[in-house]
Specification:
Distance between the termini: 60 Å
Number of strands: 0
Number of domains: 2
Order of helices and strands: HHHHH
Structural class: mainly alpha
Radius of gyration: 19 Å
Number of helices: 5
Strand content: under 5%
Helix content: 55-70%
Amino acid sequence: MGIRFSAFDTVINRLDDIVGWLTLFGNYHGVRGMGLKDSLRKTVNEGVKMMITELEHFLEDKANRALYLAILSVLRFVNRWRDIKLAVMTRLNRELVTENS
């Protein structure tokens, strides 16, 4: 007896192949019987909460918290080192000194 599921591509693309999120989705959809859209929405909402909690935990003892947040913020727009560095310096309004400046 198998389970029929035809939305693999939709779910995998939406959840970026993240195993934990796929497992959570499977629990909502397969175990709890929630619909596809509700399962995806709930999975993404719970995943975002977990990511925020983990980020806050990571940052809680960091002296350079503003630097980490600036880097994360600019990574949404740029992905080359020189662009990241320039955007972070602009955001923090200060020079960043690195080995490869």
